[in-house]
Amino acid sequence: MIRIDGYQTNLRCAFPLPPALRYKFLALWRAWLYPSRMAPPLLILNDIALTLGSSPLLDGASFSLSERDRLCLVGRNGSGKSTLLKIAAGELEQDRGTRFLQPGTTMRYLPQEPDLTAYSTVLDYVLDGLSDADDPYTARYLLTELGLTGAENPENLSGGEARRAAIVRALAAKPDILLLDEPTNHLDLPMIEWLEDELKSLRCAMIIISHDRRFLSNLSRATVWIDGGKTRRLDQGFAQFEAWRDKVLEEEELAAHKLDRRIVNEEHWVRYGVTARRKRNVGRMARLGDLRQEARDARRSTSTLNLAASDVKTSGQMVVEAEKIDLSYGLRAIVKNFSTRILRGNRVGIVGANGAGKTTLLKMLTGQLAPDVGHVKLGTNLELATLDQSRASLRPEWTLKEALTDGHGDSLVVNGVSRHVMSYMKDFLFMPEQARTPVSVLSGGERARLALARALAKPTNFMVLDEPTNDLDIETLDLLEEMVAELPGTVIVVSHDRDFLDRVCTSVIVSEGEGTWLEYAGGYADMVAQRGHGVSALSKLPETPKAPAEEKPWKPTIAPSNRKKMSFKDKHALETLPKEIAVLQAKLAKLRHVLDDANLYAQNPALFDKTSLAIAQGETQIGKMEEQWLALEVMREELEA
Fold it and tell me: Which CATH number fits domain 318-531: 3.40.50.150, 3.60.10.10, 3.40.50.300, 1.10.3720.10?
């Protein structure tokens, strides 16, 4: 019987071992029991420093990764998570510090924006990431699992397809270390859950950066927090991180308070303790300067985001009432016989696979799209604010200042009070020197914060959020959740973030397939408990029949089945058609106002006939434009799927 660290095992030898061999045997046995504890680290980053621009991004960042470790990197947008991961992958050279990779260790890196431009097919891109010892069959199997054939042209891939191809390239090699930067970006819920299960089954070490808290909680075993250019490690998964972080911040706040008291004491000595001396104590003055600098640095590192929606008058009790609404495109039913009532204060989530029609249903519920059958009635006194997933409200040529003021002046009105744009920028962690920065060069997280700033500046009691969590860091997500919870109005949110849905929603509308949508009380976890399973992948859609030749309906430049990317003409039409429809509807409203005159026909029959004809033609034109926009919207959703 041998006892090692509290464990007992029945190991017997046919002959007695000498003491030297016995100790060596025990050491080997302990290494087998605790491989991560005894084996040398596979990857070590020590005292990493890197300066981008004028200020240091990383300053003394360190961590190590051992066999089977599952590490998550967390921190605010711009804190250097992706940069540190690039240094770990050997893609970027640090200014100071050391990077050590155990000889013979294989590593694969999944970047945020994979580049497939050098390859003729997806399969070529995937196979190029394999070594001679890897099995190409695994790559082909994973491509099939993720809905790809491998014959796709990389130039025609959507963002989600490029992400799936990069995931296959990383997983197929079965590396010792897997580095994943936002692996869930552009993936829908079925794909996220598939990836989560696949990563759980791997025995390799991995480092993950993600904004999806549920994903991190289910996979990570240790957490590295990047704050102020430095790293702190918690040897527990992300599920325990937020409580630990809050405790650390609380201790730092107490330390900052003590530091402020020390500064007050030093200033008191400077003012009153040297009245009898001709020269002040130079050393003590230098100490006071150091304390003041330390306090400034502490305040700089703990700056917080300030999210608050603008106040507006209360809406009516009933916000949205949809009764037996249907909408189809050819043989494909997008929404079928769906009814719901959304009351003031409700927080409703819409979930489903890519291509299920989430955005289309959202537009129907907010009155932007009319159903084929049934009706949608909106409540009274509604002030709608929208945050769309594509951040389409942000023009690339705008500067940050112009995006907040719509290019007019140096101020904007928030909660009925005029605020200088520089002051409002600080609420969203933008520095004054960024005011003239073009939107096109902002990071994904900065564009997300800017879109939030624009949406929250508008008075609203009805907020529509389409994938609001994309590119947001954990701290910003926390504040967004608090803001949504405290908003004295109604919220509809489309999201793939399970944790966000659980924390925010009072009910969830789920795609059941073939145009059927059902509403469940509670958040995402409550919906799963009631259904018995999560969101299912989208089944193959029936082909749309061709319209009769004599009707000559508008159709997209190239059908979705023939290519994987929308043409410039189609994209332009998708963006401009809603505005053109709104202008035409405004003209029709003026024409109808002319017909409101009961004496018009008797006094001017020619004008009456002309106005009536113009209204009929305008309504026909609007119908055609709406059909065109719907076809484009369906194409976009199918391509994203």
Answer: 3.40.50.300
